[in-house]
Predict the 3D structure of the following.
Amino acid sequence: MNKKVKILACLLMIIIMTLAFSYHKEVCAASVVLSVPDSVTVGDTITAKITGSAEQWNLTLSANETVIAKDDNLTNEGSEKSINASATYEAKTEGTITFTLIGSYAYTSDNTVVTKKVNETKTVEVKAKEVKPEPSVDEQKTDPEPQPPVDEQKPDPEPEPTFQEVNETVYITGTEVNLRASYTTASQILKTLSYGTELTRIGIGIGNNEWSKVNYQGTIGYISSKYLTTTKPEEKPTEEQPQEEKSNNANLKSLVVENHDIIPSFSSSTTSYTMQVKNDVTELNIRAEAEDAKARVSIKGEKDLKEGENIVTISVSAEDGTIKIYEIKVTKLPETTLGLQSLNIEGTDIENEFQPDIYEYEIHFRELTKLNIEAIANEETAKVEIIGNEDLEEGENIITIIVSSEDESEKVTYQIKAKKLVSNTTKQEENKNIDSRIYLYIGIGGILLIALIIVIVYTIKHRKQEVYEEDDDDFDELPGELPERQQDKYFSDEQDNDGGNNKRGKHF
């Protein structure tokens, strides 16, 4: 019995181990992975690593389309082939470097050789080196300049307010107006000028500065702007003929920059604005109209725009000489950076999301093995190369679009994560495969269960047979006849049980 049970148990263990080994082979698939750092600095050396395991492979690694590693038998450790290789590439210029690993590898599953394609792309950002600014002349000084004694130190003069340079003829509007040496009422009076006196204004205070800088017969001084006008008075007012009150309205009624928008929208009470123009704009066409018909408007700074920030001023002079300055900060953008002007992928809405200065995108699609991509560069002479848009597999695919200048001195890379969703047909096939495996496992499980039941039944039956044989052996050892006294006792007990009616008991 023991020998048969052992044989059945061994058979059961062999079946279980065979199934486990088959399942292990099914789920253990080979893989190949490319890894690079996310970012480096100009001058650094980038190490690209290729790791994984497979039974066969044929791989090529390139950096910015330059092959840096190509070998179909990189390493061989023991009986199982494994890939553990690396290649280096120097980051010479600021920008991005695209590493591309292409080729194929193979492994065996269910006694079938499975071949997988490799098309993996990684992008490394190359940053410029940080340049520390040179210390200024003052910072380079080690010994402080000697200071005069406290008694000899003079207080710093009050900083001069900001004046806009002008050159215009103005007239005194007050009866007696003081020409002062500075821009405060506490400063020295140089001259006292009468109504209608003509002089030249060479500077207008900006912001809260209400003073004007003037030249009167070679004397440079300051007069409050409210006592000056650009309109020559007709005659001196007398007590009998008072001077007519003049308007001090220096507001703009409208401000328009042709083909451009100012921020915020124009309001007569808002004096500061901003705007941007393209690099090819050198002059602005500005139309500014004053609220008061007698006010004068002058515009400066709208021509010969330079790259970066430019200041355009619109000066409004009211009838009574009141000045109000409107300012527009105009930012002239640098020359167009190399890149894509537009991007369209058939069957997706990436066209609506695309922006030239955004370099990474993600799209989803089904069933297609190739994507039709239309990528247009923002320079006519630039070249556009698209990598990875064919032989698309289910899951994530990396598509790389490289824009190169005509002399290939400048390159810009766009990367698209194209996720191919599982098609209905594939799902059905997978479900069929899963169902067939389930049926297979159920069948094998049923067989194992039946075999286990047979073993248990056989063991129990065999055990009972042994017990019966032992009982038969004990029965053979009993004496052939009972002792007489024991027989008397037996029938006596029987008579007692029958209540004394047993005739055989009476007979004896």
